[in-house]
Amino acid sequence: PIIFLNPDKRGKSRQAALGKGDRALARLTLIEDNSYNASIIKRIGHAPKSVLGIYREGGVLEPSDRKHRFDFIVPPENINGAKPGDLVVAEIESGRKLGQATATIVEVLNFDQSITSKGDLPFIKIALYDHGIPYTFTDLAIKQAEQAKAAPKAKRTDLRKIPLVTIDDEDARDFDDAVFAEPDTDKANPGGWHLIIAIADVAWYVRPDDELDKTAHERGNSVYFPDQVVPMLPEALSNGWCSLKPNEDRPCLAVHLWLDKNGRALQHQFVRGLMHSHARLTYNQVQAAIDGNPDKFTAPLINSVLKPLYGAYEAFCRERFDREPLDLELPEKKIMLDKKGNVQEVLTRQRHDSHKLIEEFMIAANVAAATALEESKQPCLYRIHEEPPAKNLESYRNFLKYIGFKLAKGQVLMPRHFNQILQKASGGDYFDAISQMTLRSQSQATYTGKNVGHFGLALRRYCHFTSPIRRYADLMVHRALIAGLALGDGALEDNPIDLEELGEHLSVTERRAAVAERDVVDRFSTTYLASKIGKTFSGTINGVTKFGLFVTLDDTAADGLVPIRSLADDYYKFDEKRMALKASRAKKVFHLGMKIEVVLKEANPVSGSLVLQIADQSHSNRQSNRNSRLKNVKKQHHSSGQKRQRRIRKR
């Protein structure tokens, strides 16, 4: 709502005017529709005491948190050595003064040179500070990584002649998995397949309780940003001995899998090996080759390497069809930067069968690892995904009911029940909305020592085995496999491990990384859109709240807010069950999943926030705001006149 502060009715706070950011108890008087006059009763809280932001020339502090809607003034005596462009922490001065609040810079955040972005954008520094992500290694950890050498060939299975290949994105920074497939030669398994999934042998280089292990445990995982990565392991390992680079020998922990023609696992065997990647391929490259457009790198590999991989993938697809895991595909942003670190374009990542192929291979390897640990009676750090919570399901069912869909009660809920709803909605107006609500209804996947299965994947047991370069959970699984299968040094120690405590820690670091990555992508996206103020975009409503609409733009997948105050053609009420804003007078409704046209009104790269406006309301909103203010002024004049007349009569 639009609230006009009545300056002559400050009540108990008469002696101290409110400052920006202060919280106050006020008595509101309705003027019209969504506008009010406010009489302050008392202040109930001052503005936050500290703020992270960018110091700008001219004594201005631009806050990084989108909750701060205004800049702060930094007087010359409060700069304390900060230079324009520095990321700083400042203490907010008393918010009691009128006008912009002032701040005193108390710390200039100096980051390791390796964290400096290519351009002048401090987005990664903001994310690291905001989320408390460790970004420097101790000298001992760096020294240990740099002193690493090639692993000895003794007691390792020689896999170097097998044409294992890596398949990743073009911008991948490390290569921790390689794949191979061939038809099974066993006559008892007609149409079956033999697979090898080879994973970098991080456990050889990172031993329990050494310096590398301590820093890896603290980080929990690598954090991936558009222009760089904050790795779990120092570069000498993450991009060196633990990266499966093409045409170089690398130690690995590999699993042989044998499948029948329908993709069902028949048996598995883990080996500690020495491999030699025969090619570093990309998803687009592989898909183009299979679609009939090979390049000079993929042409020699089509028949011997790529077609067998796709043959095994087709078998996995049959198994997946029978298993029916949750089938959700939501857009993911990809930031394209130039050599200077400037945003060139924001794209939606394309998903090909080549992506799904690698995903299915990795899932199969993860299941085999969990199975092997259970068989060898080793502790397993499971990756679990519990059934949706009852509270979430209640909201989900209410939403479906009001748009004509139904999720039955009184049955054992399975992922296929969600898939059936998505299939019915496919191609309709509510498909995107149902996809979003389906995702929001789910539990969050976590790490734990207690196996409850993986609901989303429809699997009875599951762990993470395939990415020990970037996930500490996978490293623990590698150590347990080495111990249980007697595969040599670097095994899990005999000391008891509190898997619940470890799982909780790693679940927290994973969520921390995900939020930091999303924040940085939002800021890069906003930077790209900042030059497009006033332009119209098509989008989809992905969230509805009592204060406005969240819209995902189609071209960039960037998210912005349409404040409810900008819907000035009517008074809108929030319908929580239908996830909609409904107009009081007209029949207009804005609902989740609705396709709309919006105008970009504001873009703040430092906070990563976008403010949008419904396209066909842009003109009417300006006129309505103008009329609202005129009516408010007239009412105030009328009210003042009545008071003067009452005072005259009393006299």
Structure description:
31% of the residues lie in helices and 26% in strands. It is globular, with a radius of gyration of 29 Å. A hairpin with an 8-residue loop joins strand 5 (60-63) and strand 6. The two termini are 39 Å apart. Helix 7 crosses helix 8, helix 9 packs antiparallel against helix 11 (431-441) and helix 10 (415-425) packs antiparallel against helix 11. Mean pLDDT is 89; it is low at 9-15 and 619-651. With 651 residues, it is an alpha+beta fold.
Q: Helical residue percent? A: 25-40%
Q: What class, by secondary structure content?
A: alpha+beta
List low-confidence stretches: 9-15, 619-651
Number of strands: 29
Approximately what portion of the residues adopt beta-strand conformation? 25-35%
Topology:
Blueprint: E1 2-5, E2 23-32, E3 35-45, E4 50-56, E5 60-63, E6 72-73, E7 87-92, E8 103-108, H1 123-131, H2 139-146, E9 157-158, E10 165-168, E11 177-183, E12 193-200, H3 202-205, H4 211-219, E13 223-224, E14 229-230, H5 235-241, E15 249-259, E16 265-276, E17 279-282, H6 283-290, H7 302-323, E18 333-337, E19 343-348, H8 353-375, E20 382-384, H9 390-402, H10 415-425, H11 431-441, E21 446-448, H12 472-484, H13 499-529, E22 536-545, E23 548-553, E24 559-563, E25 572-575, E26 580-583, E27 589-591, E28 595-604, E29 609-614, H14 618-650
Parallel strand pairs: 1-3, 9-16, 10-17
Antiparallel strand pairs: 2-3, 4-5, 4-7, 5-6, 7-8, 11-12, 12-15, 13-14, 15-16, 18-19, 20-21, 22-23, 22-28, 23-24, 25-26, 26-27, 28-29
Helix pairs in contact: 1-13, 7-8, 8-12, 9-11, 10-11
